User: What shape does this take?
Amino acid sequence: MDEIISSERLLGELRETFKSGKTTSFEWRKTQLQALLRLLEEQENKCFQALFDDVGKSKVEAFKDEVGPAKKAVVHALSCLKEWMTPKKVGMRLLLYPSKAEIVPDPYGLVLIMTSWNYPLDLALEPLIGAIAAGNVIVVKPSELAPATSSFLANTVPLYLDNTAIKVIEGGPEASQQLLQQKWDKIFYTGSPKIGRIVMTEAAKHLTPVTLELGGKCPLIFDYSSISSNLKVALRRLSSAKWGACCGQACISIDYVLVEEKFTSSLIDMLKTLVRRLYGENIETLGSISRIVNKRHFDRVCNYLKDPAVAASIVLGGSYDEKRLLIEPTILLNPPLDSAVMNEEIFGPILPIITVKNIQESIDFINTRPKPLALYAFTHNDAFKKRIVSETSSGSLVFNDVMIQYICEELPFGGVGQSGMGRYHGKYSFDAFSHEKSVLYRGYFPDLSARYPPWNGFKMEF
Ligand code: NAD
Assistant: This one.
């Protein structure tokens, strides 16, 4: 009860700040974004430490996937802020002559950002950048499963950003549920589809708009014969995305690979050699790989391998170390399609390889499953590319690379169907936290009597 009263009080304070109008000025938004950039520069080592403590990310990985992208996003927002805020003039039809019109981006007001643990810094800051740029007052609720980053944000954000407009509230599911009971003008959620449903249900009670950045199983179509001259690069990209990015605990990581049966053994042989060279020979010598976030998720991933039918499909790895929460890069060949590993988002270092007779069949395989957040295809076959573009549906589609779409500010990032709704990054982040208000300016002349009743041919006269 006390918590509800205190979050109501806190939200009341934030609403007062919004009413005062200070967050809508260009100066305020610019100053806050500059302060956020300063935070990232001055506190870089603390960011690295928190990310290491939470998921064992190395400095290189932490910079490449979290601090670097967040800095890039602030710099981009600062350089585009004026343009994004400027109302867009709209040409009017002759029918409405004389009139002028524009689309004015209005901040929603009070917004809630709930984030996930796997990229706990960047996933909190990317939407925060959009929400500040759009002129909102903001509550960020980091994930309790990344406690070091959560407490870093709670302690550091108030030292740099305007505490009357931006708050970080820590806590677990109970805190999230209490926050969700409040009336928000927008909720931005990153996490699993399961909790996404709870968020949307609570938001519906107040008709609050939501952006849901969810997950799912992201396939990779490996058109082996068409990329034979680029196999080495393709395999390096596959391996670093699957195992070198938070140990497969990434929403746009590769979940499984589709390849033609006849190329399976050479694909697996090459992957085995590469994986051992990049990550070590065995569980004792494992390096350059993050750990699993906690015991619950460690057990969840290991349980996939305990299914005897799945265990029988292991062609590489399969060992784990409970003490260090480490799981070896593991490759499965054709695990049963009705097994849990083929029906749940893996979110760990297991890579199933599924064979198809003809690579074109991959399209049907993908289309009989929920729409993925990302679909990848390694192919040089232009006709096949066209088919994939037009016959599949996914949040994003990338040819010949993996996960690179995340750092491309020009492209919207988001899911479709079960992988989410709404989009962000770059200008799309600004849009995610703005209402596009139509504004129409009219005068009183000329005034045609034909538009007024009575409609029986006689015209009203003043
Ligand atoms: P999580 O457990 O950290 O939860 C996310 C947020 O939901 C947290 O703030 C947490 O406090 C809150 N929460 C947890 N239980 C709740 C409950 N019962 N009621 C209300 N709130 C609750 O994260 P997760 O869900 O395990 O995250 C992993 C999932 O997120 C994966 O499915 C992954 O694909 C997805 N993800 C998506 C993106 C994206 O950009 N689309 C990015 C990262 C992760």
